[in-house]
Amino acid sequence: MAETQWDVIVVGGGPAGYTAAIRLCQRGLRTLLIERGELGGVCLNRGCIPSKALIHCAHLWAQLKRAEQFGIHIGEAQFDWRRMRAWADRTVTTLRRGLQTLLRHHGVEVLRGEAQPEEPTVIRCVTADGGERQFSARAVLWATGSSPIMLPHAEGACVFTEEEALFWDALPDRLVIIGGGASGVELAWLFNALGVTVTLVEMLPHLLPIIDEEVAKALQVALERQGVTVRTGTKVVGIEKSPTGATVVSEEGSRWEADAVVCAVGRRPNSAPLQRLGVAIDNGGAVMVNEWQQTHLPTVFAVGDVVHGGWTAHGGMAEGERAAEAIASWLAEGRLPPMPSAFVLPFACFCEPQVLRVGLTEREAQEQGYAVKVSRFSWRACGAAVAMDETEGFVKVVADEVTGRVLGVHLLGAGVANLSGEAVAIVAQGLTAAQAAALLRQHPTLSEGIGEALWALLGLPLHSTHRATGRRA
Amino acid sequence: MAETQWDVIVVGGGPAGYTAAIRLCQRGLRTLLIERGELGGVCLNRGCIPSKALIHCAHLWAQLKRAEQFGIHIGEAQFDWRRMRAWADRTVTTLRRGLQTLLRHHGVEVLRGEAQPEEPTVIRCVTADGGERQFSARAVLWATGSSPIMLPHAEGACVFTEEEALFWDALPDRLVIIGGGASGVELAWLFNALGVTVTLVEMLPHLLPIIDEEVAKALQVALERQGVTVRTGTKVVGIEKSPTGATVVSEEGSRWEADAVVCAVGRRPNSAPLQRLGVAIDNGGAVMVNEWQQTHLPTVFAVGDVVHGGWTAHGGMAEGERAAEAIASWLAEGRLPPMPSAFVLPFACFCEPQVLRVGLTEREAQEQGYAVKVSRFSWRACGAAVAMDETEGFVKVVADEVTGRVLGVHLLGAGVANLSGEAVAIVAQGLTAAQAAALLRQHPTLSEGIGEALWALLGLPLHSTHRATGRRA
Hints:
The structure is a homodimer of 473-residue chains. The first copy, chain A, has 13 helices and 23 strands.
């Protein structure tokens, strides 16, 4: 006895969910979006956006410290963490208000409440005011996201999630961050730049395990030079209570005293409602879907963090678009569209120097059996980077020696995340190194660095003496 | 009676010339590079590079002024123009030293001196020590660049070229810049940011005449808001001497008093040596070449500013690469390679907000008979831009309604010049808006703005309510 019949109900108003809802409305489907918290999900409210706003503030602070070399003398300066926080709040509020306007404009009906599935296409919703409503739809899309994993710790120890750390009232003196993924590295950079003594502990052999090892090693050197203590290959076995906050204990017996500890060890899919529905879930709790984001129940779809451990907003948005297309096709014709092409999903970390990974790492390319050819270009030879004194890092290109195709583009450097569109265009379009090198780039910009690495790959380095190294897999 | 026989002599060691020289050596040709001044040409010594270094300093200064909103309190700060100049000098020196190393590494023989053609392939060179030498080669490439045009002015009036303004010992209080091209606009932004009272006068109806009009108009608004007085459609008819420096007089009778005047009205090809050789020269003094940079004398080639009024280093470098290929083919086989594909040449201006133009403007697309479709995306809806409070400007995409192909990408915004590689990849590869929109971009970055404008063009705006406007030509 559903109250209202919708074409589609989307559960979860983060990037994956709201993107799907907008696309569904654009395809003429009446769409209800149910969100239990704030629109925009983790990304907008407790992740990418507030962290980027804070990183911008800290970046400016870091720039000030070396202003003398650029002819600027600063007599006295201080920063106020709470006012940086206020800037982050204002950024979030501005964008959230924009999102509300957007959803209204596109005709998405938004309901605040907690959704539970009664049947595959029947949703019960406990609304914000405590009422209970029931809705049915022709299809349901789950975009319930993920929650940060908290490591076990002694009661009373000062331990925070990666999200909570963005909302502290005051900065700790000594901080231990457990987990060297994107969140952990960004927080380490942020707090170190603001004068906190930071220890970053990662269980795996290098930071940002999904990026190219060579880039990860150079990043570690950069962070250490800036003052971050980095411990890779180090497993945390205990978090004890201590007089000042907490003590982190590693497997090999190291003990780090801290005023605060941040767990940035990953996130768990919010898949409980779908488990109740009997949808197939993998060992990590992620909802299993086909290439069109469809679960084994044909009218139930899922997107974003609830289906995998990618934890990227842009990945979620792309899946939201894909699911909307699939649902529209399913509802109109009872079948899915033809096989979609694979995503080339960029990955960035917004510490300084920034990290960008697009396509295959050198190791992945070798493991997939390619005859791998690799080249590099250092920012030290890039005019734009030298003029800003931002010469740390490099561009690395991974190509297939047989076809010449560019398989991966990897960057470490100031502001390189903005080069994601260029790198994705090269890899996703299957361009050869020769085709990609022939594209002109504005001088003097960072974009030239990709061109230089490509020329080096072709044995025709221009602003470097580097030549490609080829290794047969 | 040539002293030495070379495969190729390159005259001029700017970006076009040194690129060609490196490429020629990479093709196994013995190459002599003759340069009368400093290696690196105008770009490295008196143009792009020192101006970018100074703009970086001024940008940091401008950022400081709004640091409060980012939680940073600055008690007292001042800048020192001479120390900013020192940073620019250091940048130039670093890169020039790198270039010398590079040329040596690649086997380019460098000679300091003034070259004159005796015959098409015989060069007489007055060397730095006053000696005279003569060389012959199988082909000669001219890359002698251009020189700034100085308007006629009263004797004793304080008038400077766009190059000289970068080397002032002290800043003027009041400055008039004549010419609203890239150099004029960059200098206007730079000096205004440093507190100089700047009037920018342009004869044509809008600034940066080669960019999209809509972008140019928005740029003018931005510069005026920052305090620059902009006078477009205004012809200067006189520069008089005045007690403080100079008075600039416009056709309609305006008079601007200034301590200094900068002429940024364009550049003149340094084609005198080639005129002596009888090579065909156009009315503007530019050497005429075919699509392979070959003059009407088959063993005489020319690249860069001496052949056109593009005045971009990256354009010159691309021509240098092309000429090297052509010369290698000509010398080996007595003929040119097959017709090359046209360049998609990006154009940027490094004021703030920055300008980037790639492909056709809306007007050009209409004039070429396309059924033009246009869309826009404002940075106000871009998370990365909002987090930095850099929301001025927009992305504009111009497409062909019939084929869906993207014809032009135009941007006004903070740091958009770094997006040149992405925009060129889209236009040069002939991607449709749908293909280009489907490329994933890292969140939150400025690169997303291009994606958003593309989705709007397809009638599927995501983070905006804007839809494309189509107009049949």
